[in-house]
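WARN  no MSA supplied for this record, continuing single-sequence
INFO  ligand: alpha-L-arabinofuranose
INFO  echoing inputs
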Amino acid sequence: MKKLLLLIITLGSTIYVNAQTEVKLTINQANEQVISKHIYGHFSEHLGRCIYDGFWVDENSSIPNKGRIRLDVVDALKKINIPNLRWPGGCFADEYHWRDGIGPRNQRPKMVNTNWGGVTEDNSFGTHEFLELCDMLKCEPYVAGNVGSGTVEEMAKWVEYLNFDGVSPMATIRAQNGREKPWKVTFWGVGNESWGCGGHMTADYYTDLYKRYATYARDYAGAPLKRIASGANADDYNWTETCMKNIGSRMWGLTLHYYTIPTNNWKAKGSATQFNEEEYFSTMKNCLKMEELVTKHSAIMDKYDPKKKVALVVDEWGIWTDVEPGTNPGFLYQQNSLRDALIAGTTLNIFNNHSDRVKMANLAQTVNVLQALILTEKDKMVLTPTYHIFDLYKVHQDAKYLPIAFTSPEYIVGNNKIPALNVSASQDSTGAIHISLVNLDPKNKISLSTDLDGLKWKTVTGQILTSAKLTDINTFSNPDKIRNSKFSGAKKSGNLLKVELPSQSVVVLELK
Ligand code: AHR
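INFO  complex generated
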């Protein structure tokens, strides 16, 4: 019965999904809410092979590069319109002393990366290199400042170094290091996971510290900082409450970190490539927890900030599995399957649907770490299924949000069930409507019949990401096993949009 769905979409109206289930889908064209492009942001930490051997190649490398920045990686990220890149951590940020990463590279001090594998960090990739990377990517930098082990003065001087245009001690050193003009960085993190690796603080203690650090991280001409406070771990609602109460409008954004752990067990998280349907189900259930987290954190924020001026910034999210066998456990290198693509599509739908409060998000992490977009091996590069989702969903960036309400069919395993279908929609500046649909059910397709009465459209086209098995992956020897392809399962039939949504798939439709 759940297999045959009739979905009727009307403007501000009611939808029917199968003979029994009444589904409401509202497309409110008067709505002015925009899906911020910064929801589609990324994260690059000095961790494992993300920076070194990911973005950054050896001095005499034969891999095509510009100033040691890998060009194939840059081109791939430009193609998905990467809007911002967070750096240098993560946990690493609270142990990073930025002055070690400027000036002649052969004179930069080395340090131990105590968080990630105990390897020696040579500081060859520092402030100038990161900002050169952002320039090449044409994306905005998001710098995370050190609260855990750094001083207020250190953070204040970093901001001066980056943003002051004039004669000052830091601007002079910047010029000596080859950069006359300031970069004007505005996204500014004040610590990371201050409840954990960033100092194991209480919420009250952190909020006092936040105010000290944030006060002296100054706004220089043309570079007003968007200060971002270190927010909650998953469902730590007290942390959000305390930050809203004590910091309030002194911040532009407040973060939330949540990782999908397949097994719910941090000591044995589960394999990235070998899992059965039960583990797939529990993974997707954990992924869908993001909906609850964003809803509940937003409700707390609404109490203190009803006009929604403070952004919820989900600047670490994604699936976290066991590392690939044989790799350094401190490097967090994991493969990426069709399951990861379904997680990405679902999570981005959740963020789109909460774009009144979620204004920024950063997948962890861009290259070779956790739910990576890109894997590299010497001169080879693989675009993961997750990468292809960001390619499909880029149409939502800065588009007008179209709210949707509906009742989903269920995906049932044993005595447990989750919604099989999740959706989000937007309208871009040309008037084109994009609907992204995810079917989490690995066995059953979903048939949708949607009445778009009131919306003017003549054609529907689409793209799909799916594969025969949930465990399918792209490898260096078979890099294109999973990739987007033309979707021919949608058609206009009279006034109806009819869609046959295959099992375990992500589809993005364009209506014009
Ligand atoms: O993304 C990996 C790590 O996860 C980050 O360094 C930290 O902030 C989080 O615990």
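The chain has two domains: 6-32+402-511, 34-401.
INFO  checksum written, moving to next record
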